[in-house]
Each structure stands twice: as structure tokens, then as C-alpha cells.
Known about the structure:
Elements: H1 15-22, E1 26-30, E2 33-36, H2 38-57, E3 61-62, E4 68-70, H3 71-77, H4 79-82, E5 89-91, E6 97-100, H5 105-115, E7 124-133, E8 148-158, H6 161-182, E9 187-190, E10 200-207, E11 213-217, E12 224-226, E13 232-233, E14 241-252, E15 255-266, H7 273-280, E16 295-299, E17 311-313, E18 323-324, E19 332-346, H8 348-353, E20 356-358, E21 364-366, E22 368-375, H9 376-386, E23 388-389, E24 392-393, E25 404-408, H10 413-425, E26 430-433, H11 439-449, E27 453-457, H12 459-463, E28 467-471, E29 477-480, H13 482-495
Parallel strand pairs: 3-7, 15-16, 16-17, 25-26, 25-27
Antiparallel strand pairs: 1-2, 4-6, 5-6, 7-8, 8-22, 9-10, 10-19, 11-12, 11-19, 13-18, 14-15, 19-22, 20-21, 23-24, 27-28, 28-29
Helix pairs in contact: 1-9, 2-6, 2-9
Amino acid sequence: MNETLREAPAATEVAGHQLLLRAGFVRQMAAGVFSYLHLGQRALQKLEAIMRQEMNALGGQEIKMPVVHPAALWQASRRWYEIDAELGRLVDRNGRSLTLALSHEETLAELARQEIHSYRQLPQLAYHIQIKWRDDPRPRAGLIRSREFTMLDSYSLDVDEAGLEAQYQAHYEAYFRIFARCGLPVLAVEADVGMMGGTQAHEFMYLTPIGEDTLLLCDGCGYRANRQVATFRKPEKSDGTETMQFVAELVAGEETIEQVVTAVLPKHVQINETKLVHLLDVQRVRPTAEQATDLWVVDDGVGDWSGQADRVADIAAAQEGDACANCGQPLRTVRAVEVANIFKLGTRYSRTMGATFVDEQDEAQPIVMGSYGIGVTRLLACVAEHHHDENGLAWPVAVAPYQVHLLALRGGMETAVTLYQNLQQAGIEVLFDDRDVRPGVKFNDADLIGLPLRLTVSQRSLVAGGVEVQVRTGGETAVVPLADLLNHVTTWLAEQ
Length: 496
């Protein structure tokens, strides 16, 4: 079930995805939907094992929440009405409305409502690794933007904001450890809370030209933010203005009311629609039709403005070269892929869903929540994107599906079988290529699959004194005597 391909299927966009397909890690079933073959599943298990170790070290309790949720949970949090077609909705045979898991905040809040009663039960930390569904209209780049995907979700439960802050910082640090162990460099940036809600969020970003997110970075003071929330120092005077109109959809129960919003900005400045949405509080306003009058919003960088101004605020998008709001140095833009995010949810879900605890004064208080997620399948794609060369993948030892690729060539099969058994008994993970194919096919497939260490046993290597050992990254090759091979491999792996 792991046939390699000489060429990537048509319409594959990025190198990492092409190599995962060619090396037999994944196969596409539909737009944004994939099967994970043996090598792909083993690599995912390695990533998940690292995550479990780090979550357990924080005191996390692993649970498993369902993929299918009653619509009533999402209606209680209001997200049933606030999220568009990306939320997968269905009806069961009895006419009950359900949704496929886009995230699990509602489900965790419901569990907390059932299980947490007293402040003595807090703080707590629960996590799971589960499948999600987002009906993305434009899946792209393979696993980087898919519709069905797997995520690590962690949820903290606390009595107050101080407890939330402690768990938030613990996750912030743990996530850097996870990505370091997986061999992926990331940056943490300030981010929009988006559909999750809450008071603060950070995203962990892998910098790559194929990313869809734009980050603003300051090399002077270290300021980092997603363009959705990035601020910048505006000139004291603006040279003219530009206006643009939007139709905002304000939610009133299950009814949507349209409102025309006119934005006024300095010339040559782009609108930041995320800032505008938050300014209008679009997702939380519940107006009547009579209240939905047209609005004029003026950016605070506009100079003299004598026209209508219902609200004045920062609604401008930061761009390359704008002055950093903190130190004044020019900002630079980079592209990135979001591989994780953390949110201070506060009481966003517990208040609406009745998840409370009784405090020391015997009064009911809403549980203070945090939400923390890593895209497991997206992480696999980013590691593949970061660790490859012109010949194929080049996995770090910690996440490689196997540690060693053993090749048996002519005259070396009997020795290779014995070596395979000895390596396995020593606890070393070995992929044994004993196929009856040309040596060139085996070498090409070994480079394509990209396991850290390649052992080649052939009549030629045995005559030369042992087994040919080649490191995938760097290409160092040596012939190691059979008597020394096990110690050589064990020592090399331990040093990585």
C-alpha cells in the first residue's frame, strides 16, 4: 500500500505535497480529503506521540470528543448562526440537526458543565487528537489547506484570569518545544481571535513563500503580528482620502440584516476588513431592522475630515515599509503557514452554555477557558515542505516513519535478513526493501522516501568489509564492518 510514483499527479501545487504523494505517504480521495498510507500514518503517529508527551507534562488528561455534534450546542454558543457554509451541517433520520466538528469548544464546555461543580475541581487541562471538518471552498496545497484534517486540541479550565494566564503561557512554551522536536522553525505572532472569540490569541507560523498568511515583522524591536491585527505608526497628516463601501451582515436571532458601511481612509492606504468587523462587532450585535442604519467609519489616520463620522478608529492594513508602532523602524512582510494557535476564551462559552462552578463563597461563577490547537496533518505537510531536496524527502529522526532504510542488493540478501532481525531486536525501526528490482530503483525510492539512515548490503559492500551506511541529509557514506554496525547505528541515532 505504499507504491512510489515517478511523477507527481497533475495540479499539485507545492513541493512538499508532491513528494508526499510520490513517496506513497498520502493519496487524495476528493478535494481536500486524503487517505494516509502506511508511511504517512507512521509519521503522523510520531508527531502525535511528541504532542502527547508535552501535553502530559503540562498535566493534561487525554480524552476523546465526538466528530458529530448536536446542533443545539452550537446554537447555544451562537456560532451556529455566525459561521457560514464552512460549518458542515446535516440532519439525522429523526430530523435532528447535527454538525461535523469544526472545533470542539462547545463540546468541551458541555462536558465541563456536566463534570465541574466546585472550585476544588479546578484548574484542569483536557486534550484530544481528533478529526475535524471545514468545508473550505478553496482547498489547496494538499494537507496545508484541506477540508478534513486532524488536530490536537487542548482546553484549560480555571477559576480566574490569573489561572488562564498561567496555562496560556505554559502552552505557549510547550508549543515551541513541540515544533523544535519536530524539526520545524516557527514564529509566534499576535493574531485575531476570529470565530473562536475571546480576548487574546497567538498564532505559530512557519515562514514559507507558499503561505497564505501575511505577517508584519519589525527587526528593530521584535514586534510580530498577523496582518489582520497589525498596527503601525501613521503619519501626522494624510494627503487626501479614499472611501469604500461594504455591506455588513448583522445577526438578529436567526435573521440577517444588511447594513451599508462607508469606510474613509487616507489615500493609498488599504482597508483591514478584520479590524472593521471587530469595530462593528458584527458577530455579536443583535439589532432590529430599525437600528440597522448606515454607518460612516473614519480611519484615525485621516487628517481634516468634515464629513459624517459615526466612528473613528484604526481600520487600516499595515504594509511593507510602514513604521513600527513601537519603535518607528520600517516593518517588513513575510508569508507564512499557520500551524497552531492559542486563545484566551475567558467566559465566552461557559456563560452562554451554563458551565459554572461554585466558588469559596458558595456563588456560581462561569469557568474561565482557554483553547489551544495544533494542526497535526498540516504539521506533517510543513515538515515535508521544510525537509526535502531535489531527490526527495529528508525526515528528521524524531518524526521519520522509520529510522533506517535497509536495502538488500545482489549477493547481500542473506546477510540483510539477519541484519534486519538484529536491528529490530535492538529496538531500531527498520524499513526493509527486499524487492526484486534494479538497484537504481531501490536507491531512488530510498532518496524519495527520505528516511534518516540508509544501509545497503550487497556483494560489493561485503567484499569492501561490511555494510554501506549513508546519511540522508548531507550524504555522508561509509562502509562499516558488520561487527560494529549495530553500535554505529545506535550511536548515530542517539546523537540526533
